[in-house]
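Hi R.,

Here's the chain you asked about this morning:
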Amino acid sequence: LIFHHYKQWYQRRVRELMKKHYTSTSAQRNFQRSVDDRYTAIVEAAKTRSVLALGVSCWRVTQDEPQPEYYVQTYNILLLSRDNFTVEPDALQFLVEHGFDFNKQYKEGVSYTPSTEDMIIFKEKKAPEPIRELFAAILQAKCPVITHNGLIDLAFMYQSFYAPLPPTMSIFVADLQDMFKSGILDTKCVAEYLIRETATYLEYLFRKSSKRMRDAISSEKPHINLSFSEHRAIKQWVNFVECFASDGSSGKDLCETYANHGYCKEGKKCTKSHNVDEAINSHDHHPRKKHKPDNRRSSPMKSKHVDTGCHRAGVDAFMTGFIVANYAVYLKAHPKKAKGEEEEKSSSKKSHYQSRDNHMSVTLEENRDIPLPLVLDPCRRAVNCLTLSGKNIPLKVMKSAFVKPSAAHMRQQHEIAKKTAK
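And here is the predicted structure, written out as tokens:
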């Protein structure tokens, strides 16, 4: 389960590139419709920006029935690019305000070299980089990879730890399908297309899943169980973070913008509440008439009950895994929702979801042969689908019959296979 941090700024950079190259309103609308142009902007951002932290949360199934049990290990890896990279002053300010320690990054960060066209990865005469070895190990494990709003995540990891990004989206998608043979699950996609949550930013989904799990435990319904290692041998490197604590009541009026999108342009200057628990309670008691796809992601969770060390990629990775594990239990208990057969009461909602349901039904048939673990099978309709902001249907991670994987990817797969055989 992979999720890297501070994606808001990468997403903002893509929007800036859009404005730079497409000045007119109509041209910007065309850009939004063109996935290839959007991919070009993502490639430019990935080549000029750096990944500051990588969160990896590994979930091992220890029991399938009667209810899933997982053994979880989560890692927060600070990274330091050896190449020059671009950074904006306001991005630095944002990161510092949300607890990022640049001194620690430059002192303890794992060095890595982003991919270039003439770079030969895993060259025997050259010492391998730890982060590239880790990424190769993840590919070798052939396990499902879970992310949240993961298109940009996958593009940055590909460019930074694997190979130069391909020139087109279609080739990139072909490479992804071949790299992750057990499938990719995007929690934002599951939330929007299967669960149909009111809001879909990361902290909202995590808090909502936590609430569902507490309700299931109290009513003795199926729920997940987790166990964690104490890591006694390396305890000086281990932090215990309380992720499940409630924010309590703020006593303020709810900021609707933040409640619905996990983002408010006023930031700390906003006089209204940015309390996610209050947003969930408000949505549960006063649901919006029509779900509007959320195209933004929240800043890391912030609670007076939570250690400030929680502002990190590892926490995001854990939350991502927790969400999909709980969704799998929820969908198993609601098979019509898992199959897209649940009827909407409102005719407007029927129309809104019809194209999505048709699209996801086709996707289910295409995903039949993907070797998902039994516990994740209820989420199969959303496998290999990535959320596209501003689009009504997701991006399918499926190779076209007219496209071949990139030469760089094939070379990488050959080198990884050689290492595995040794």
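One quick note: Strands lie at 2-4, 53-63, 69-81, 110-112, 145-147, 184-186, 225-228, 385-386, 395-396.

Cheers,
M.
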